[in-house]
Hints:
Layout: H1 3-13, H2 23-62, E1 65-69, E2 82-83, E3 98-112, E4 117-125, H3 132-135, E5 138-141, E6 153-157, H4 158-163, E7 171-176, E8 186-196, H5 201-204, E9 207-211, H6 212-218, E10 225-226, E11 228-233, H7 239-249, E12 254-258, H8 259-262, H9 264-302, H10 304-312, H11 317-353, H12 360-363, H13 374-396, H14 404-408
Parallel strand pairs: 4-9, 6-8
Antiparallel strand pairs: 1-11, 1-12, 2-10, 3-4, 3-7, 3-11, 5-8, 6-9, 7-8
Helix pairs in contact: 1-11, 2-9, 2-11, 2-13, 9-11, 9-13, 11-13
Amino acid sequence: MNLEHFIAKRLITAKDHKSSISAPIIKIAISAIALGMIMMIVSVATGIGLQQKIRQKVAAFSGHILITNFNGNESDVSTEPISTHQKFYPKFKNITGISHVQAVATKVGIIRTPTAFEGIVYKGVGKDYNWDNIKEYLISGTIPNLQSQLNSEIVISQYLANRLNLKLGDNFNTFFMKQGGNGLPNSRRFKIVGIYNSGLQEFDASYIIGDIRHIQKINKWAPDQVGSFEVFIDDFTQIKQKGEEVYGKTSSILNTQTIEEKFSYIFDWLKLFDFNILVILIIMIIVSTINMVVALLVLILERTQMIGILKSMGANNWTIRKIFLYNAFYLIVRGLFWGNFIGIGFLVIQKYFGIIKLPPENYYVTVAPVDINLLYILALNIGTVAICLVVLLIPSYMITKISPAKTIRFD
């Protein structure tokens, strides 16, 4: 039998424990640990969830890695064609971790309606386009049918549809400037078959998506000529490494750029979340530890006579310290239980019901996303227990200064 654990258990379950002087302090300590764990779980889950969601949205419209021409063109417009006869297309066979490659082209234009006009970027896509990335944000309608002959079907953002007073099934005229800017603009009439809302103003305010063959005809490109390639990878954490590998495996006349480089302002902002999460974790652990130190000191002072009796019976200092550390461990676990129960419960509610909304113009999402990862939660629990117990070794040292002769007579 573990003597220290046995005595600690008797102290915890003693009837006078709940009515003792330390009872309210212990309750405060347990509440502090529970509240700290709730804050840590929520901050980590929402921070990581927001990062993942925004990365996913940006990748849905641009891929993870873009392959373009070396033409000095920094805009989103495809000016020089690239042949589709590339070793990496339609599949990157010599690089692992790449899930999909798709050919696209973009061209700026102006949508003109009887009541309004708006500048847009027409993104032309082909049969290889992965619509699964866009379907998640489709709020009405369907995707264009690109499997047959050239057609006028497009998807437009809810933002543009509202500004242009357009709805599902409407037709509208779009004017595209000719290459070089000479001559009358090319006119195309499109039909809205789908409306999406990604929450990313960068794309919602500009992009409509349709058949790439319109751009090929306007620019007088051959059917095997496109504007760029979008590469999707399996693991976003390897985007820098995969970007370098893709660059090394493409032609010398082609350039590659990751979305972290192209949209650096978004990803630099996302990196701030890591710092914010770290600050919250440190503050919560400090608060929890301070409360546990106070609770342990009160428990030691309250059991001074017991400590003296145990010492007089031959118990050494470390044995008695372990009794109180077991007691503290019980209080920490109790606080963590309620913290996990409430914290995970809140995350589940948020994930399936989305009770907390966010302004999309500031956070790029309408609902606070959460990432419920049991490994993160387990790591937070183990880390909290370990740090608290290590710190509690310091106040438990007070036991070594207690004299049995004085404490047994202490009243």
